Amino acid sequence: MNVYEVLRRPVITEKNTVLSAERNQYAFEVARNANKVQIKEAVEKAFSVRVVAVNVSSVPGKMKRMGRHRGMTPGWKKAVVTLTPGDKIELFEGV
């Protein structure tokens, strides 16, 4: 898998902003079939940082309504990556 196929987008929320500032952890939406080793290699290659740990969770889809019609948003996979002390990802700075 290519680096840009594994990492879909950064997840920028209030909670993840606190995690990046205090614990040096960053969250990404990743491909559903990506494993921890592929995620670690993709982050290290894309951002030139050292990864200590990768935590992965599957986020289920939510029920949404449009008028009287109901549907589901698709589920996705989230990875929280812990970096070595001193390393930072500039993509998240100033958010």
Pattern of helices and strands: HEHEHEEEE
Report strand %.
Answer: 35-45%
Oligomer: single chain
Task: Please write the CATH class name.
Answer: Alpha Beta
- Strand order in space, largest sheet: 1-2-6-3
Produce the secondary structure layout.
Layout: H1 3-6, E1 7-10, H2 14-22, E2 25-30, H3 36-47, E3 51-59, E4 63-66, E5 69-72, E6 76-83
Could you list some keywords that capture this structure?
3 helices, alpha+beta, two-stranded antiparallel ribbon, about 100 residues, Alpha-Beta Plaits, about 25% helix
Describe the 3D structure.
The chain has helices at about 5, 15-20, 35-45; strands at about 5-10, 25-30, 50-60, 65, 70, 75-85. It is of the alpha+beta class and about 100 residues long. The chain has a single domain, classed as Alpha-Beta Plaits, CATH 3.30.70.330. The protein has a 4-stranded antiparallel beta sheet with strand order 1-2-6-3. The chain is globular. The protein starts with a helix and ends in a 12-residue tail after the last strand.
